[in-house]
Task: inverse folding
């Protein structure tokens, strides 16, 4: 936030978040969403557990790679790591950022495409509910004809 000249002190953060535990603070907290929108930022939400839809994850991977390549002495002192981090961040170009964003958009479009295919398959499913369960131990057999029209998704 400092790099973006966003000045928000500790007192302001506490007032914004309120007396919530860290587990309570989420994307849906109106004070945080409202503050971000008031500052001109669009609040977007990424599905949980889909870091592949977040370009910053790819950029962070690039930063870590650069640090690893530059740290040939295995010096893990705070001063050395801070210096390496600052160097690595400046070495990530806007073209690299754009490439990561384009990759994420491609993944997102692929997810949407597969989601549509899955919805079509689910819509085609039909179920037969038999309320007259006489035997209880009878196994259901699946015929190949029952699976006609379905294909495996990659």
Result:
């Amino acid at each position: 936030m400092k790099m973006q000249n966003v000045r928000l002190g500790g007192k302001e953060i506490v007032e914004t978040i309120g007396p919530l535990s860290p587990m309570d603070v989420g994307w849906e907290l109106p004070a945080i969403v409202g503050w971000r929108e008031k500052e001109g930022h669009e609040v977007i939400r990424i599905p949980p557990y889909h870091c592949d839809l977040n370009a910053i994850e790819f950029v962070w991977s690039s930063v870590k790679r650069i640090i690893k390549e530059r740290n040939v002495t295995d010096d893990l002192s705070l001063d050395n790591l801070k210096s390496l981090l600052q160097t690595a961040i400046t070495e990530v170009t806007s073209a690299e950022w754009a490439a990561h964003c384009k990759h994420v958009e491609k993944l997102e479009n692929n997810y949407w495409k597969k989601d549509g295919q899955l919805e079509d398959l689910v819509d085609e499913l039909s179920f037969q509910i038999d309320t007259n369960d006489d035997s209880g131990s009878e196994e259901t057999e699946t015929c190949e004809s029952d699976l006609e029209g379905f294909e495996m998704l990659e």
In short: Residues 21-25 have pLDDT under 50 and may be disordered. Helices lie at 10-17, 30-38, 55-70, 78-91, 94-124. The two ends are 41 Å apart (CA to CA). The CA atoms of residues 66 and 88 lie 6 Å apart.
